[in-house]
Amino acid sequence: MIIDAHSHVHDPIEAHVALLDQAGVDRAVLFGTRAHPERAVDLASLHREMAVLGQALGGRANAIEGFRSAWRELDVALAAWPERFIGFGSVPLDLAPGDIAETVEREVVARGWHGVGELTPPPGRAGLIEPVLRAAADHGRLPVVVHGFAPTTADDLKTLAALAVRYPTVPLVVSQLGGLHWMQAVELVRDTPNMYLELSTANIVFAVRLAIKEIPDRTLFGSDAPYGDPVLTRALVERVTGPGEVRERVLGGTMAALLGLD
């Protein structure tokens, strides 16, 4: 089974399904989103969508109504294509720890979603995800996905690794190869058994090759669509791996095991 480990709700959702078909991808982990760059028709409209993204990544978009809107969009997409998409739900990180636990229970677990993410703590404050990890631990092997590209800092990656050690039963996925700090991300994930590294947004081919070589059983093919393209990102994984078990793990086997799909 080929699984794209990182994608966001598209408008229209059928355009996303068409991309998966073109890439030969069976299923995709789907996150809710407040930004929709695929709606942009010119540079001005793209600026508007990316401003929404910037607010979210900077931790300045924690209004609960924004999350509710994203949850509703995600519900619609999953209901329309349950055989193609695997739902993960994000939660606000500025709530009290008890409220975060209740939100994970009500908005993720009760919906039957498979994990929490993509979380976007503000730069320098990755520690805010600890209540989510605690809640995930209370629900067994509930994977948690955290944004790894800018504005995530090198210190944030260290904080994530330290938290992963504290919650060893929770699979903690760092997205986008850790961004500009990809070498440190590879080292931290390699040395932390319950951490995983998702490979989207790589701007250097040998970064993907090296990550897979160092942690072949905990690297995950992902596109970050609509920001990336599953056709291209799958081709990149296949370019740097040979046919066989490692490629199969990266392209979906490891994610299927995490989700209990195998």
TrEMBL record:
Molecular function as annotated in GO: hydrolase activity
Domain called Amidohydrolase-related: residue spans: 3-261
Keywords: Hydrolase
Record-linked SUPFAM superfamilies: Metallo-dependent hydrolases (SSF51556)
Domain of life: Bacteria
Protein name: Metal-dependent hydrolase
Species of origin: Streptomyces lydicus
